[in-house]
Amino acid sequence: MTDVKELLLSRIRDVADYPEPGVMFKDITPLLADPAAFTALTDALAEIAANTGATKIVGLEARGFILGAPVAVRAGIGFIPVRKAGKLPGATLSQAYDLEYGSAEIEVHAEDLSGQDRVLVVDDVLATGGTVEASLQLIRRAGAEVAGVAILMELGFLRGRERLEPALAGAPLETLITV
């Protein structure tokens, strides 16, 4: 796994002062453009899905879609998008949550999850944890079980893991890289 982490880290680019001064943005587009690195990432996340017994992958808008869909294919399980409010047609369940400077809301199709599902949440970055926390609440409200959370990169200094501990309720949180 050390070789995979080194490969992934080598393909993540730092962009200073984006999206605002003082922020060091972690850009994963070079990783996605490298077939070997993207395959290694997909395989590592699919292994987590298998180890948790997940029956569905939930990908969080937007980069969680890019990561979650190939993981679901590799693991041989379904993929469910969790989107920003107003982006899904038909009946949805929604969950509001607070951001650093305001609030947001995410949604899932009401019929996409059931009590038979064990759901692994997949996303690219764990920062403050607000979106992941809201997705866990949404999954449980839909009647599904949270199998765990799998993240490419955790920004440890923002302490999102600490925020998520109560919401995880014992489900595992696995990150491939912590910076």
Automatic annotation (TrEMBL):
Pathway: Purine metabolism; AMP biosynthesis via salvage pathway; AMP from adenine: step 1/1. Residues 31-154 form the Phosphoribosyltransferase domain. It is found in: Cytoplasm. Its EC number is 2.4.2.7. It is an enzyme of class 2 (transferase). CDD domains: PRTases_typeI (cd06223). Transmembrane segments: none annotated. One of its GO terms (molecular function) is adenine phosphoribosyltransferase activity. InterPro entries: Ade_phspho_trans, PRTase-like, PRTase_dom, UPRTase/APRTase. The keyword Glycosyltransferase applies. Keywords: Cytoplasm, Glycosyltransferase, Purine salvage, Transferase. HAMAP family: Aden_phosphoribosyltr. Belongs to the purine/pyrimidine phosphoribosyltransferase family. This is Adenine phosphoribosyltransferase. It comes from Streptomyces lanatus. The lineage of its organism: Bacteria, Bacillati, Actinomycetota, Actinomycetes, Kitasatosporales.
